[in-house]
Recover the amino acids of this structure.
């Protein structure tokens, strides 16, 4: 009996010592899960500081705080963080499929499943929805594994202007089975401020500086109504020397079954789909946290030959109605002579017959 | 020069390089128009089996026509050295020739009067043809070719594309120029049926009546008469007035 009492008190005191030692650690409240407010701060106190944790464990607080994952909290995925953390032992983490079961199932049927897992493409601490990312960034993700030059050559075996296509389209436009598309425009900047320099996606800081510290969107959306009209596009295209808008045909819903779709090899999948798909467009404006916000653009802007973005054009599909009418008028002008003259020629044929007969 | 008005003379109007060039160009332009229509209106024009083949054929034909155009330019400018003389209208064409030719096509032709112009190897085109060909050969063809070459090489020629106002502007220009060429083609083929233009373009030779040549030279000798080249009827009228 006495032995049992001794064991009980000993266990209790060890437990109390463990609890006290945990509570005595700096930031130890992180491990007292259950509170909603401030639940990430204690993790980020170390993991948000690159000086305190190894490179692979650093979490960019600025980016992370904007993600959906930040809202559900660290412990939603890392529930089993031991009280002794950091002790060098691996911290358990939830599988993506536990929440994203649908995506997981779809991904399992695609080509990528044998090559990499979710975090091969997505950093779970930096995830953005497709709305918050530019097409170029999507392709930058793909080019981590797929060599751009090799891909250009392989597509070039069947795709005319493969370099142009690969530069102007997010890979997912053709390699996921979305039914609907919109045009995503993003701001590119020429190197050295020259109009003809190499263009790259303009970053938040330089655009912020160019807009004079105001919101970046005010570079295009002059009246700041969060809507870009054709007139505003016209002014932007004419007044900016180093900034241009690049358009990308982007899928509305991004599936995760990355595959080679035979119907996408048929040019007419995009090039005959008609102007309906080209009506909706957005400008992707970079935000401080590295994501992008979408500003809607007047419908049909990419179809407009004069005011819309000058570098977005899809043969066949981007037909400009006004140009077609002008073209038709020119051809009709060419038919005036054969039709009009030919008709009078037929009516007056006797005159020439008589003359020919006389001579 | 013979006085016998019924005698016919054969003149060598179209040398073989010009004829080969002309028919390569004609075939090429028709192929370009058809494939171009399929590229722009794929949902309603399906001459070739696939869109890609339309693009490939359009590109290859465009290059052939561009090269053949360069040969034509080189041949006339460097080999024959008659490009300017044949194609650039002179003061005479500007002052009288153009109006006269226009009047002929719009009125005199219907009244059964002969053409004020007769072709010779050094003066193959009437003033209206000169103006039309000047626009077509020195503006339309080079521009449609250059915009086509830019569109064929959008990525490597990016700076040029930007200098030309962006891809959309170039596409619009290429399309409108192509429409203008098609409009010209309709008029060109029709007008070829008015005169004796088709035969020399096929065999090179044209039969001309010898007596017409004399009118070309005669008026220059008449005092006070402002000579109008290639317009025998007008000269004859002037001559008769002075005689009467």
């Amino acid at each position: 009996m006495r032995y049992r009492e001794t064991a009980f008190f000993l266990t209790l005191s060890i437990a109390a010592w463990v609890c006290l030692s945990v509570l005595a650690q700096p930031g130890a409240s992180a491990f007292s899960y259950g509170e909603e407010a401030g639940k990430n701060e204690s993790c980020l106190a170390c993991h948000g500081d690159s000086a305190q944790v190894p490179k692979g464990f650093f979490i960019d607080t600025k980016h992370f705080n904007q993600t959906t994952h930040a809202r559900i909290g660290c412990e939603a995925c890392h529930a089993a963080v031991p009280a002794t953390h950091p002790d060098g032992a691996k911290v358990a983490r939830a599988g993506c499929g536990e929440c994203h079961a649908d995506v997981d199932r779809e991904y399992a049927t695609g080509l990528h499943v044998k090559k990499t897992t979710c975090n091969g493409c997505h950093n779970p601490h930096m995830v953005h929805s497709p709305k918050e990312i530019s097409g170029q960034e999507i392709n930058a993700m793909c080019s981590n594994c797929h060599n751009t030059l090799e891909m250009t050559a392989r597509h070039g075996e069947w795709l005319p202007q493969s370099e142009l296509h690969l530069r102007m389209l997010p890979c997912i436009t053709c390699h996921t089975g979305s039914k609907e598309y919109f045009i995503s425009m993003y701001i590119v900047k020429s190197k050295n401020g020259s109009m003809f320099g190499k263009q790259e996606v303009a970053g938040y800081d330089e655009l912020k500086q160019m807009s004079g510290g105001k919101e970046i969107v005010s570079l295009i959306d002059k009246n700041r109504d969060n809507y870009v009209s054709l007139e505003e596009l016209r002014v932007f295209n004419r007044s900016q020397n180093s900034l241009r808008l690049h358009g990308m045909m982007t899928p509305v819903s991004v599936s995760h079954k990355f595959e080679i779709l035979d119907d996408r090899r048929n040019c007419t999948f995009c090039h005959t789909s008609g102007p309906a798909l080209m009506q909706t467009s957005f400008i992707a404006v970079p935000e401080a946290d590295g994501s992008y916000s979408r500003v809607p653009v007047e419908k049909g802007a990419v179809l407009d030959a004069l005011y819309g973005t000058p570098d977005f054009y899809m043969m066949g599909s981007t037909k400009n109605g006004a140009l077609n009418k002008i073209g038709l008028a020119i051809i009709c002008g060419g038919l005036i002579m054969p039709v009009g003259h030919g008709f009078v020629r037929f009516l007056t044929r006797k005159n020439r017959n008589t003359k020919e007969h006389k001579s | 020069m013979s006085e016998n008005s019924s005698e016919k003379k054969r003149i060598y109007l179209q040398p073989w390089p010009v004829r080969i060039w002309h028919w390569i160009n004609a075939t090429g332009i028709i192929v370009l128009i058809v494939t171009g229509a399929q590229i722009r209106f794929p949902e309603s024009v399906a001459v070739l089996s696939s869109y890609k083949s339309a693009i490939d054929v359009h590109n290859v034909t465009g290059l052939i026509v561009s090269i053949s155009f360069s040969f034509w330019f080189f041949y006339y400018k460097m080999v024959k050295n008659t490009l300017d003389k044949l194609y650039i209208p002179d003061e005479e064409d500007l002052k009288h020739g153009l109006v006269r030719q226009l009047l002929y096509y719009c009125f005199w032709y219907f009244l059964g009067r002969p053409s004020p112009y007769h072709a010779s190897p050094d003066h193959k085109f009437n003033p209206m043809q000169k103006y039309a060909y000047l626009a077509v050969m020195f503006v339309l063809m080079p521009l449609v070719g250059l915009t086509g070459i830019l569109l064929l090489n959008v990525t490597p020629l990016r700076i040029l594309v930007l200098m030309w106002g962006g891809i959309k502007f170039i596409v619009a220009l290429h399309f409108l120029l192509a429409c203008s060429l098609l409009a010209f083609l309709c008029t060109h083929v029709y007008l070829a049926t008015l005169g004796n233009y088709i035969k020399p373009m096929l065999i090179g030779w044209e039969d001309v009546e010898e007596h017409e040549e004399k009118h070309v030279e005669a008026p220059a000798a008449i005092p006070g008469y402002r000579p109008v080249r290639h317009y025998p009827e007008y000269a004859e009228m002037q001559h008769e007035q002075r005689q009467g």
User: Anything to note?
Assistant: Chain B has ten helices and two strands. Strands of chain B lie at 8-12, 205-209. Confidence is low (pLDDT under 50) at residues 1-5, 211-227 of chain B.
